[in-house]
C-alpha cells in the first residue's frame, strides 16, 4: 500500500491530503519528535488530521519515550493515543514487552526495521498477541550520504521475511517538495535520494517492501497521478511535449509494449492497428532517449508504428520524431516491460529545480544573514576560488568545442551564443567584445538573448520558457553547417536554449553548450557539451554568482581560443584590435614597437602607413615590405603573422 507524510508543525494543505486519499494512499505518516517543530501544536493538529482522514487511511505517529515524556503522554495510556487519532505508534527505540502489550490493546505498533525489529519480533511472537497488528518500517534519512546501503537493506528485509513471512515492511521515498531544514529529500535508501519517486517506489517493491511512503512534505499532482496509475491500474504514465501535430492523436490513449520486448525502443502493439493514415516524412532528426517516433511512408508496412526511444539513436529518414518524454519522466521508461500498459499525458514540464546543484543550499553560507560584511566577503571569496578548479575538470571538453568553432570560422561560419537572463547577457557581452578586441565584424560572433535586445536590461516575461522562440531566432539568422551554436544555461534546462539547439541539430548545424549542472537536458542537445558543476551558490539559486562566473570564464576561453586559432593573435598580443580611441591607438603603436623592437617614431609611421592595422604594420616591419605586399602575405598565410 501507499502512504504519505504530514508534519504537525506545518499548516495542513487540506486539498493535498484529500488528493492523496482519493488516489488510494492508505497511510499517513507523522512524527511527534521533530526538534524544529512547536510540539504544543501536536495534539490539536493530530485530532484535526484524523477528522480530515476519517476512515480512508490510518495515521502512523513516530515517537520515542523522550518525546512522550515531553508531551505528557504515556505508553500505559493507549486510550489517550487512540483519542488523539493515532492508529499506529512507531517505536523509535524498543519498549518493554508489557508496555507493547498495553499499547496493542488500543493501537497498532510499528517496529524499526532498520535496527532492532527482528529481536523485538522474536520476543513478541511468544506472547499471546495478534501479530497482524504489528508492522515494521525503515527510517528515512534527511542528511545526504547517510541513507541505507542497498545491500544492508536487502539483508534486513530477507531476514524479516524469512522469520516473519506475514509481516508488512514499510520504507520511504522522496517527494517533489522537499522538507527542511536540510532540503535534500527523505528517502530510506541513499541510492534513491535524487531519483524519480516512482522509480524508487518500484525498486522498493521489488526488494520486498509492502508499504511505500512519501517521506517529504509533498508530491506534485502529476507524480500523484503516476503513482495511482502505476500501482492501482498497472499503467505507466509519461508526460510529453509535441513536436508535430501527430502526437495529439495519441494523448490519453492506452498502449501496450509488445510482448517480444525490443532492446532499443518501446513498440506500441496497437499503433499500426489503430491508425491507417498516410504519414509523410517530417522532423526526421536524431532520436535521443525519450523521443516519441512515428514511422512514415518510407518504411512501407511499418508506417504508423509508434515507438518510444530507449537509447540515443541516429536519424532515420523513415522515422518522424513527433514528440518527446519530459526529462523528469525519462527514467520511467524503464518501468515499461513486455506487455506493460503505458499512456502519454500532455502537460508542462516540471521544473524540478530543487534537485539541481545550482538550486541546492550551500552549507558554508547557511547563516548568511548573521554574518558581518567581513565574514560575508570571506565566505563568498572562498566559494569563488573553487570555480577555476571546477572548470579545469572540463578542459578537454572546452578544447574540443574551441576546435569545432575554429573549423567553422575558417570555413566562413559564425560563432552564435544563445541564452536567457544572465546566461544570455554573458553571451551578448562576449560577442560584443570580439568586435573591438579581434577586429571581426559584428556578424562573426553573435549573441542571442531570449526576448531580444531589450532583455539585456529588463526581463522579458515568458521569453526563456518558449522553445519556439529559440528556434525562430536561429531561423532568422539563416544558420548553416559552418556555424556553431552554443547554448548557455546555468540550470541546463532553459526551454529557449533547448528549442534553439534542437532546431540546429535537426539541420545538421554543430552545437555546444555551457551549463552548470551535470547530465543536463541542454547537454543532451549539444554535440560538444561543457557541463561544469560549481556546487551550490552562496545565495541559494542565484546563478549570477558562481555559475555566472564559470560561464564568463568559459566564454572567455571559447572566444579567445577561437580567435587565436584563426590568426587574430601573435604571441599574446591582440594584433587585430580596432583602435577606435586614443588609448587603443597608443596600445596599437606599443604592440608594433614591442614586436619589432623599433623606435616610437618608426612604430607610429608603420601604424599610419598600414591604415592603422596593427597586423599589417607588423608584417611590413618584419619583412621591410609595403602595405600591399603585407596584405598579400597575410592572405597567403590565412591571417597568421607567424607564417608570413
From TrEMBL:
Catalytic activity, as annotated: N-acetyl-D-muramate 6-phosphate + H2O = N-acetyl-D-glucosamine 6-phosphate + (R)-lactate
Pathway stated in the Swiss-Prot or TrEMBL entry: Amino-sugar metabolism; N-acetylmuramate degradation
Keyword Lyase listed: yes
Pfam families, per database record: GKRP_SIS_N, MupG_C, MupG_N
Quaternary context: Homodimer.
PROSITE patterns: GCKR (PS01272), SIS (PS51464)
Gene Ontology molecular functions: carbohydrate derivative binding; carbon-oxygen lyase activity; ether hydrolase activity
Xref: CDD domains: SIS_Etherase
BP GO annotations: amino sugar catabolic process; peptidoglycan turnover
Keywords, alphabetical: Carbohydrate metabolism, Lyase
Group of enzyme by EC: lyase
Residue positions of the active site: 433 (proton donor), 464
Family the UniProt entry places it in: Belongs to the GCKR-like family. MurNAc-6-P etherase subfamily.
UniProt cross-references to InterPro entries, sorted A to Z: Aldolase_TIM, Cyclophilin-like_dom_sf, Etherase_MurQ, GH, Glucokinase_regulatory_CS, MupG_C, MupG_N, MURQ/GCKR
Function: Specifically catalyzes the cleavage of the D-lactyl ether substituent of MurNAc 6-phosphate, producing GlcNAc 6-phosphate and D-lactate.
Enzyme Commission no: 4.2.1.126
PANTHER family: GLUCOKINASE REGULATORY PROTEIN (PTHR10088:SF4)
Highest taxon above the source species: Bacteria
Name by which UniProt lists this protein: N-acetylmuramic acid 6-phosphate etherase
SIS domain ranges (all copies): 405-568
Organism: Mammaliicoccus sciuri (Staphylococcus sciuri)
Other known facts: A lyase-type mechanism (elimination/hydration) is suggested for the cleavage of the lactyl ether bond of MurNAc 6-phosphate, with the formation of an alpha,beta-unsaturated aldehyde intermediate with (E)-stereochemistry, followed by the syn addition of water to give product.
Amino acid at each position: 500500500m501507499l502512504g504519505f507524510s504530514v508534519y504537525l508543525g506545518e499548516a495542513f494543505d487540506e486539498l493535498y491530503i484529500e488528493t492523496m486519499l482519493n488516489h488510494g494512499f492508505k497511510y499517513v505518516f507523522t512524527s511527534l519528535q521533530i526538534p524544529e517543530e512547536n510540539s504544543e501544536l501536536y495534539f490539536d493538529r493530530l485530532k484535526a488530521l484524523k477528522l480530515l482522514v476519517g476512515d480512508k487511511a490510518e495515521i502512523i505517529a513516530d515517537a520515542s519515550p523522550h518525546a512522550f515524556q515531553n508531551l505528557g503522554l504515556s505508553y500505559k495510556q493507549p486510550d489517550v493515543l487512540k483519542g488523539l487519532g493515532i492508529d499506529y505508534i512507531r517505536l523509535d527505540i524498543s519498549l518493554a514487552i508489557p508496555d507493547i502489550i498495553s499499547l496493542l490493546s488500543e493501537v497498532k505498533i510499528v517496529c524499526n526495521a532498520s535496527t532492532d525489529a527482528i529481536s523485538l519480533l522474536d520476543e513478541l511472537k511468544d506472547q499471546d498477541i495478534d501479530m497482524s497488528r504489528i508492522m515494521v518500517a525503515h527510517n528515512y534519512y534527511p542528511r545526504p550520504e547517510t541513507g541505507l546501503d542497498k545491500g544492508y537493506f536487502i539483508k534486513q528485509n530477507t531476514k524479516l521475511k524469512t522469520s516473519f513471512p506475514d509481516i508488512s515492511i514499510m520504507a520511504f521515498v522522496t517527494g517533489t517538495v522537499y522538507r527542511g531544514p536540510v532540503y535534500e529529500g527523505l528517502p530510506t535508501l541513499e541510492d534513491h535520494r535524487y531519483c524519480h519517486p516512482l522509480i524508487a517506489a518500484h525498486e522498493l517493491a521489488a526488494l520486498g517492501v509492502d508499504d511505500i511512503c512519501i517521506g517529504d512534505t509533498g508530491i506534485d499532482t502529476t507524480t500523484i497521478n503516476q503513482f495511482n496509475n502505476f500501482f492501482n491500474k498497472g499503467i505507466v504514465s509519461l508526460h510529453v511535449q509535441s513536436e508535430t501535430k501527430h502526437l495529439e492523436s495519441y494523448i490519453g490513449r492506452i498502449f501496450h509494449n509488445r510482448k517480444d520486448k525490443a532492446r532499443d525502443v518501446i513498440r506500441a502493439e496497437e499503433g499500426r492497428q489503430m491508425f491507417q493514415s498516410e504519414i509523410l516524412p517530417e522532423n526526421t532528426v536524431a532520436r535521443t532517449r525519450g523521443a516519441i517516433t512515428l514511422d512514415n511512408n518510407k518504411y512501407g508496412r511499418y508506417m504508423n508504428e509508434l515507438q518510444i526511444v530507449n537509447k540515443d539513436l541516429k536519424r532515420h529518414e523513415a522515422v518522424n520524431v513527433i514528440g518527446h518524454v519530459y526529462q523528469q519522466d525519462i527514467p520511467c521508461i524503464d518501468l515499461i516491460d513486455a506487455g506493460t500498459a503505458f499512456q502519454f499525458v500532455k502537460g508542462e514540464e516540471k521544473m524540478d529545480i530543487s534537485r539541481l546543484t545550482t538550486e541546492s543550499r550551500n552549507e558554508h553560507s547557511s547563516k548568511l544573514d548573521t554574518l558581518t560584511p567581513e565574514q560575508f566577503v570571506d565566505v563568498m571569496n572562498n566559494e569563488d576560488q573553487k570555480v577555476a578548479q571546477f572548470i579545469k575538470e572540463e578542459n578537454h571538453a572546452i578544447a574540443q568545442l574551441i576546435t569545432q568553432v575554429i573549423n567553422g570560422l575558417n570555413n566562413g561560419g559564425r560563432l552564435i551564443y544563445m541564452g536567457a537572463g544572465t546566461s544570455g547577457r554573458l553571451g551578448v557581452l562576449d560577442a560584443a567584445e570580439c568586435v573591438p578586441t579581434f577586429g571581426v565584424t559584428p556578424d562573426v560572433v553573435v549573441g542571442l538573448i531570449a526576448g531580444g535586445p531589450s532583455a539585456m536590461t529588463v526581463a522579458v516575461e515568458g521569453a526563456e520558457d518558449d522553445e519556439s522562440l529559440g528556434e525562430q531566432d536561429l531561423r532568422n539568422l539563416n544558420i548553416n553547417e559552418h556555424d556553431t551554436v552554443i547554448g548557455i544555461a546555468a540550470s541546463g534546462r532553459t526551454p529557449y536554449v533547448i528549442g534553439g539547439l534542437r532546431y540546429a541539430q535537426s539541420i545538421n548545424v554543430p552545437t555546444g553548450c555551457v551549463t552548470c549542472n551535470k547530465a543536463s537536458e541542454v547537454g543532451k542537445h549539444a554535440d560538444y557539451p561543457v557541463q561544469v558543476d560549481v556546487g551550490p551558490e552562496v545565495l541559494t539559486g542565484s546563478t549570477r554568482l558562481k555559475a555566472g562566473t564559470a560561464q564568463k570564464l568559459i566564454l572567455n576561453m571559447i572566444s579567445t581560443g577561437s580567435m587565436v586559432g584563426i590568426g587574430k593573435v601573435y604571441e599574446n598580443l591582440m594584433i587585430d584590435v580596432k583602435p577606435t580611441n586614443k588609448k587603443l591607438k597608443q596600445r596599437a603603436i606599443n604592440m608594433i614597437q614591442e614586436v619589432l623592437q623599433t623606435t616610437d617614431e618608426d612604430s607610429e609611421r608603420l601604424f599610419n602607413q598600414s591604415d592603422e592595422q596593427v597586423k599589417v604594420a607588423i608584417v611590413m616591419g618584419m619583412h621591410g615590405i609595403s602595405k600591399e605586399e603585407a596584405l598579400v602575405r597575410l592572405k597567403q598565410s590565412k591571417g597568421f603573422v607567424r607564417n608570413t
